[in-house]
Amino acid sequence: MMNGTVKLPEAFLNRMRDMLNEDYEAFVRSYDEERAYGLRVNPIKCDKERFTEIMPFELTRVEWASEGYYYVESERPGKHVYHEAGAYYIQEPSAMSAVALLDPKPGEKVLDLCAAPGGKSTQIAGRLMGEGLLVSNEPERDRARILSQNIERLGIRNCVVTNEMPDRLASRFTGFFDRILVDAPCSGEGMFRKDENAVNEWSPENVEMCAKRQAGILDEAAKMLRPGGIMVYSTCTFSKAENEDNIASFLERHREFTLEKSERLMPHKIKGEGHFVARLVKSVSAAVEYSYEESAPVSRNAGRKPDKKGRTAVSSYSEKDLKEFLINEAGVKKETAEGLLQTSCVNVFGENIYLTPKTFGPLSGLSVVRPGLHIASDLGKRIEPAHALAMSLRKNETERYVEVTMDEAKKYLRGETIPVDPGIKGWCVVFADSFSVGYGKATGGILKNHYPKGLRVEL
């Protein structure tokens, strides 16, 4: 059957007819309608009041997510300086419902178990506001890298990106997290209007396979939630086998959990695609084996040999050395540098230096893609501030910055140099309309471009 440009499988339509009864015709007609487009403000970089004042787009609120907005497709917010600056994240509106139901609070330890490409992780991070710990996990390595890039673009400091299977994480983080999001891989029925590949890959057998896989993921997630903790299960499918039936069988297997709320978002009833969300609460009296310990601050020696002048850059990576680097070289204000170091331990991977939230614990034995905030790279003869550090900084957190116009920002994002006041020297954070976009190094009235080559874009 053809609806607009979407050819829906007959077996799928027959099942939906049985499930929806009198709502079926309205459901089918929704595939002839234009889909909704959404974006979500990043409160780490911009509060909602200022966001609505300065955004050059026609925006209306998404009712189920306080940080979500609809936009007009023709305005193309993905091709704007603000997008590259991480001021917002483009996300399908219904997908915002899962984190709204999870409702994470600053200071909590939160796991996003199936996190790529990062829409829900970045939404969680926005609600944590830099306090607490976010572990964003993605089992597929390539998708984990994309997730890591989005974490960096939105300036998130307190996130560790892992690349593990759920059972491996569960053996390490038993009873550890306050809240867990399981946005499970599914048959994708809710995305048929948006994604033709989801239609082509659909089959009753795939639905059954997804349901079994989701049940296994839920079982592992349950082990990692502390007593009294909250878990949200979400899919972008209409299948009862993947949704209500999976929750019912999970509750049979895990009597320590109760279902607090579940909801379907249907495209013929709301302005968005199909989604399912369920909020589960673990009993405060649930038995749990918990033996996790925080990692103490550590220093790692990179093994650098002294250069001809006997220098080893910051080879010991002590807290004192890194504090001096952040303040004197990277232009970070003293109180911000101290705050970053106080809650973190230092981890070094090759030439890259990271600040890992202490609550995460040791990294050994885990496949970690991004072990926290990348603050610097030790290039042997010198140490340079990292792009991720710049993206995480607000203007009131740095002593040395350059504010550029929108046209200059576009040049910067293309990799070009920018003229600056000759009195400005050294590493500077580049801000476009108060949003950080990266680092540059000023000398002789020119800001040398240090925007990563792999990220450069023509806007």
Structure description:
By secondary structure, the protein is of the alpha+beta class. Helices cover 30% and strands 25% of the residues.
Q: Which keywords apply here?
A:
alpha+beta; Rossmann fold; Archaeosine Trna-guanine Transglycosylase, Chain: A, domain 4; 3 domains; five-stranded mixed beta sheet
Q: What do we call the CATH topology of the largest domain?
A: Rossmann fold
Indicate the radius of gyration in whole angstroms.
24 Å
Biggest sheet, open or closed, and with what strands and sense?
8 strands, mixed
Distance between the termini: 40 Å
Q: Which strand order spans the largest sheet, edge to edge or round the barrel?
A: 12-13-11-10-7-8-9-16
Helix amount: 25-40%
CATH class of the largest domain: Alpha Beta
Number of domains: 3
Find the structural class using helix and strand composition. alpha+beta
Tell me briefly what this model is.
This protein has 459 residues and is of the alpha+beta class. It has 15 helices and 23 strands. Helix 8 packs parallel to helix 10 (204-224), helix 10 (204-224) runs parallel beside helix 11 (244-253) and helix 12 (319-329) packs antiparallel against helix 13 (334-342).
